[in-house]
């Protein structure tokens, strides 16, 4: 059951990462039945003469042979079948000390397990390694943080009535900073009023943060020698030294985003590029960037964030 947190009028529930919902996928590998004393030599042979294992580093190379009557035999993974067919494999081992080994083709999990349940299921096929990801730790909010989340969600909901009635994108968005418990920016969808198709609420909110950052940088004093060079810390490190600033190295680095409706794909990608910390939204959209593409945790993207769906209690 999904972990839920009560934040005043809202129940907040973390949306699973894509890896948490992956199904078991297997691929074929060549294995050999060996005696324990042969393990080191055959692994050296495989490393020099056979294609290296690619993408299945989570698969344990050796396991105990549990067939009836075999008390101390081992099974060792040699290589993946997608790189060699049986005739090619036999040609490699021919005229070696391993030519007479019993060679089998078995299935192993193609992807590493992400949850303990997956680990248990994957291990039934072939033993795999498992390291619980830190981001799977159940989220815990302090009482102050719960009040902050409720405040920001309420602010977004209050803007809803004044925003354009859009079906497939967020109508009102608030950005907040957890460290200060303050709202940094808020904006509504203005595509109808402006006639501009990109004036979604998320894009407008990011633009407000950008304007604030430009104003801050423009207002910073230059050095005493009038060289025009700023004495300020580089933008990428400013958040590390000055907690009262609302942005860090990237435009919205670490900020929380609160939306009435789940952002569309374009806006979700903008949030990825802006390096937000968390996304909260009330209304899910089947065509949204989270529900449809799990963009908050997509492996191909260079930034991930935690997403929550919020229900009125």
Structure explained in plain terms:
This protein is an alpha+beta fold and 313 residues long. 28% of the residues lie in helices and 21% in strands. The strands form two sheets. The protein has a seven-stranded mixed beta sheet with strand order 1-2-11-10-9-7-8, with helices on both faces. The model is unreliable at 228-248 (pLDDT under 50).
At a glance:
By secondary structure, the chain is of the alpha+beta class. It is 28% helix and 21% strand.
Overall outline: elongated
Structural class: alpha+beta
- The average pLDDT score comes to 87
Main sheet specs? 7 strands, mixed
Oligomeric form of this entry? single chain
Round the Cα radius of gyration to an integer and report it: 27 Å
Could you give the count of β-strands? 11
Query: What percentage of amino acids are in beta strands?
Result: 15-25%
Relative helix content: 25-40%
Outline the low-pLDDT stretches. 228-248
Order of helices and strands: EEEHEEHEHHEEHHHEHEE
Cα separation of the termini: 18 Å
SSE blueprint:
Blueprint: E1 4-7, E2 10-14, E3 26-34, H1 39-49, E4 62-64, E5 74-80, H2 86-93, E6 103-109, H3 116-125, H4 143-160, E7 172-177, E8 182-188, H5 191-194, H6 201-219, H7 235-241, E9 256-261, H8 265-274, E10 278-283, E11 306-312
Identify the notable features of this structure and list them briefly.
7-stranded mixed beta sheet, alpha+beta
């Amino acid at each position: 059951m999904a972990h839920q947190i009560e934040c005043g009028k809202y129940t907040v529930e973390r949306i699973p990462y894509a890896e948490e919902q992956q199904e078991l996928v297997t691929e074929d590998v060549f294995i050999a039945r060996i005696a324990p004393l042969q393990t080191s030599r055959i692994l050296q042979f495989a490393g020099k003469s056979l294609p290296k294992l690619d993408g299945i580093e989570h698969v344990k190379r050796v396991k105990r042979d549990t067939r009836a009557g075999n008390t101390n035999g081992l099974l060792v993974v040699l290589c993946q079948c997608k790189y060699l067919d049986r005739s090619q494999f036999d040609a490699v081992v021919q005229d070696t000390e391993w030519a007479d080994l019993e060679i089998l083709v078995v299935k192993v999990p193609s992807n590493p397990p992400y949850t303990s349940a997956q680990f248990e299921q994957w291990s039934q096929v072939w033993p795999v390694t498992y390291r619980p990801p830190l981001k799977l730790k159940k989220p815990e909010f302090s009482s102050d943080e719960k009040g902050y989340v409720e405040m920001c969600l309420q602010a977004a909901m209050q803007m809803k009535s004044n925003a354009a009635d859009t079906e497939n994108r967020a109508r009102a968005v608030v950005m907040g900073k957890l460290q200060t418990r303050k709202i940094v920016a808020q904006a509504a969808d203005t595509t109808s009023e402006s006639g501009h198709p990109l004036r979604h609420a998320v894009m407008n909110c990011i633009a407000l943060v950008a304007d604030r950052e430009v104003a801050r940088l423009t207002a910073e004093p230059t050095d005493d020698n009038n060289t025009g060079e700023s004495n300020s810390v580089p933008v990428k490190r400013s958040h590390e030294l000055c907690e009262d600033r609302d942005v860090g190295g990237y435009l919205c680095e670490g900020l929380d985003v609160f939306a009435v409706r789940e952002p569309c794909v374009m806006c979700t990608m903008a949030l990825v590029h802006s390096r937000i910390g968390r996304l909260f939204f009330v209304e899910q959209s089947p065509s949204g960037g989270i529900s449809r593409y799990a963009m908050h945790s997509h492996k191909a993207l260079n930034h991930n964030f935690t997403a929550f769906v919020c229900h009125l209690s």
